Amino acid sequence: MTDLSTPPDTLPLWTATALAAATGGTWHGLQPDHTPSIARIISNTRQIQAQDAFLALIGERFDAHDFAQDAIAKGAVALIVSRLIPDVAVPQLLVDDTRLALGRAGAARRASFPALQTTALTGSSGKTTTKEMLGSILRAHSSSAEVLVTRGNLNNDLGVPMMLLELTPQHHYAVMELGANHLGEIGYTTTMVKPHVAGVLNIGTAHVGEFGGRAGIARAKSEIFLGLDRDGIAIIPAQGDFHDVIAEAAKSFRTIRFGGDASNSDVYASDIQLLPTSSIFTLNTPLSTDQQSITVHLPFAGAHNVENALAAAAFAQALNIPLTTIAAGLAEAQSTKGRLNFIKHSLTDTQLTLIDDTYNANPHSMRAAAQVLTAQVGARLMVLGDIGELGDSAASEHRLLGHDLAKLPLDAVFAVGQFAQDTTTDIQGSPVQTQAFTSKDQLFVALTQWLQQQRDAKQPQITILFKGSRSTQMETLITSLETFL
Ligand code: ATP
Ligand code: UDP
Ligand code: MG
Hints:
The structure is a single chain. By secondary structure, this protein is of the alpha/beta class. It has helices spanning 16-23, 68-73, 98-111, 127-141, 159-164, 185-193, 208-211, 214-222, 243-249, 303-318, 323-332, 363-374, 394-405, 420-425, 440-456, 475-484; strands at residues 14-15, 26-28, 37-38, 40-42, 52-55, 78-81, 92-94, 117-122, 147-149, 173-177, 197-200, 233-237, 254-258, 268-274, 279-284, 293-298, 341-346, 351-357, 379-384, 412-416, 433-437, 461-467. The strands form 5 sheets. Strands 9-10-8-11-12-13 form a 6-stranded parallel sheet, with helices on both faces. A 6-stranded mixed sheet has the order 17-18-22-19-20-21, with helices on both faces. The radius of gyration is 25 Å and the shape is globular. The two termini are 32 Å apart.
């Protein structure tokens, strides 16, 4: 599976000279007749193995130089430091800034494989999902060992070079997820990755505060094209908020547009069927020289996942992957924890399905999740935590959400958090039962009571969907409920 890191024995070794050249550092304590060969550059002593170099990062609340002796005790053969550690038995590479040294080492490793087909994607949401879908397509085209996909969420200024450091001569493709917590971060990581295909998925509302508005988010994401090969291909949304800002940033490249329809797009869906746990649609690629449409059976529910699949297909098309392989890869893609996972519990008197969509939330995906819930049979309850990072529009966005939920065929909506009252305001008076809670403990009591009522009423099927922004940790309610059952 993709969750395994590259086996250390397959990694090309760093010589002391190559590492100094890559990072711009100077060796101290190097014995000319006994220079280390370094397999991995590791920043956490908990992961150190023999032949690793320990790179000491400095964070807001820690200075990993404090762990240097620990690293040596665990077998580190060298240190990469921004201040020399006294009395150590291994050579030290002194650099001006260890974070930048990590980036330079990652960039050097990437540059040592000029034939590697590299893709980079960013966006406000759907990055991890899309990258897994694209990884699945590429694995259907070649073998797993030839595809490096960002593991987990290693998408920032530290995670991206760490992933690049896992490249080996075996890899033909790399799929890199790039995230941004501040302006300039994607410019920094894309320059390291030097993608042949780079794209922006969407512009949402996340981190509005950090970027000074949504146009600022669009500009920050569009930095991904700064690293794109001059002959590379830009993947851009055909429609959606700020798609024009993204198109402007990509205008000097060949572009492939995804989403939208025949009038504005190069990779779009038609005949979309959103089923209870999956989706079926026709994938259309008018730019293809051979077959131009194919039926896709996507094992993901939700309209937003059809959009993610279209983005993955656009990347694959840029890499000249045949349409039949794209459809086969999408059919085999696996969902990631916390993104619309279906958990079934057969109870004595009822079939209970818990839908775990707790990884994160935004106004768009809240609605998509609600639609998924309406596609389920039987009693349906939506359990919501707050949507974070909405700035001044938080109260009005939650109220609008409730306004839309009130129109859906749901049995109940329970909301918890600072904006729970805003969510429930417009649901009150509708056929949908609703309640706002200030704590998850309170909500849990109501949740178990509601469940008991359904069971007393002999409901043969019950579905409860859980969702909220990451900070709300709504998954704890799933754990509590499963313990209670
Ligand atoms: P992060 O910024 O945390 O790395 P991400 O961009 O990698 O997030 P995913 O992990 O794929 O995104 O999905 C997170 C959540 O975003 C999903 O659970 C879903 O609610 C929502 N989401 C996924 N795809 C989309 C999309 N295309 N449009 C809007 N929301 C989406
Ligand atoms: N660290 C380390 N060894 C340890 C503990 C910490 O190398 O035993 C370093 C490492 O770089 C880590 C950082 O210090 O990322 C912060 O550690 P902490 O445990 O606070 O956070 P976490 O590892 O969970 O990010
Ligand atoms: Mg992610």
